[in-house]
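hi! just following up on the protien thing from before. the input was this:
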Amino acid sequence: MTSRRHFIQQTAFAGAAFTMPGAFSFLMKDGEFFSYESPYLKLQLSKKQPSFSFFSTDSLGGRSFPVNLLLPDQGTFDQEYETAATTDSISYFPKGEKQHPIWTFSLQPRSMAIRTRYTGKDQPPLTISFSQRTNHCTVLGAMKEEKQITFPCVLHFPGMGTLRMYCSEPSMALFYDADRNVKDPFVRIALQAADAQHPDITYRFESATIYPDSKKIREDARFDGFRRNYINIFQVNPRIRALANNSASDACAFTLYLYTEMARHTPELVKGLRAMDLVRNSLDQYVAGMKAYGQVGYKGGAAWQSEYDSSDSAPSLIMSACYYILDTNDNEWAKQNYDTVKAWAAKMIATDTNKDGIIEYGYSGNSDSWDNQHFRRPANWWDTIGFGHDDAYSNALAYRACVLLAQVAKKLGKADDSLYFNTFAGKLKSNYYSTFYNPASGVLAGWKSEDGQLHDYYFTFVNSIAVCYDLVKKEDGRRIMQALLNKMKEVGYTDFRLGLPGNLISVADKDYAHHDPRWGYQKFQVYENGGATGCYVYYTIHALYLLGMRKEAEAILMPMLESYKAGSFEGNCPGSSMTKDWKTWTGECWGYEGFLVDNYLALLAVKDYTG
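and the predicted 3d structure came back as:
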């Protein structure tokens, strides 16, 4: 088994070997390793067995290989091999039998083919274990079974590159697993060896960049982070077969619509696989009864501690289903699942107990109603802040969900349903501004509690999404967004490389749901209490573009693109156990996921820039 020290020595050798001139080449040291580099790939293979000891990629072809993506221990095979190498291939034979190789690796500057042939004896799979602490990679594809993903699919390394994966045998599946609750968190794939039923299999990996191309940015290096990271928001958890916070983290019902927003504008991931297929696969799990964070009954990594589903869960699922139906014209899926989506909507609308068109959360949202003795989660994604009763953010989603569902109902010939959902949406919209607008601040409050009080902390995401989803008049939207920008200047928030805070002034103790300083209680700029993040910034930038405030939009977007290029929203801060998904206004880390996909929706704002 490879020791950590030996692994470091291997990695050091790889770095030295690749400094020699030439586009690409094979090298050996002490007869132990084969090494290969091109502008797109940097690989090292053992001479003793078919396994990688160094693996890195740069889909932009810039020879940027800052880290080895592998875990040190890649396992060992229980037999000895002999090898034969050419300038572009390595073959592995059973010891003493050099006639038919079991595994052959053929390398080209932008691709790698791995061929396996059956020689009369079953062989173990070729397993590749990536270090999730080094890079939160994921595999994207259709999953009919847990940990089994069909070809073709995509292996994506945030900030580095993407490899499209193919297999010559359509019946083969890729083993795919991920776990962060172990000493060495991993993302693991395994290629099945040839057998008697499938005596000759070739797996092919091709370097790719997947993003909406535009002449306006094609030669502009400022958008390299956009190109490398555009599909970062898509991470499939192989154990639940659904899109999640990352490949080894929780699925959240209330974020599926964020992924769907991005999926609508994402080019084909690989021939035959669209980002919308990932959305459908996730919806299939929810339709089948899967519970996720935000829903009563979820007991995953972070159990949902509430008597009620979050107010934004149902709207998120409804929006995702409607976008899928309307954008793909998958009428068969629509007909099969319409009743379930309609039931989600009925349950959502039923929370409007006073019939004012505003959906309600089960907890009052009153100040001083939150305590750790009887800990409960509030109404939405911002689950440490005391959103309750009438929640402005969730109602913006509910409005959008009803508008979209009315369109779906009409498409399916259900005129009465279409009228019903349009009528509810109209009532919600007619009461939204008067319910949440705070004339004292000039912006929309976050929530109106059961006692009739507005709770306003200059929430950037609440006001922005209301503009994006057409819940305020354009002139009111401009005034609201300008008031937010003015408040940013007043409080001294100027470093947009960090993203944006969700709120611009500290949430009072009486309105904070999670009474722990680690999560922002009594600590402004920490986590959700004004912490800076890329999450939800898309809606602020998009709202500014919609209102013709282009200069203001790009004052936020362009610095964020610098951060995406630098990988500033993922991983740990040096010397800290905290991660970069949340920071103080001076850049101190307070995140915990290590990689939170919500940070990457802001890349969709480049569409506004190029449009």
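Residues 1-24 have pLDDT under 50 and may be disordered.
The CA atoms of residues 58 and 160 lie 5 Å apart.
cheers
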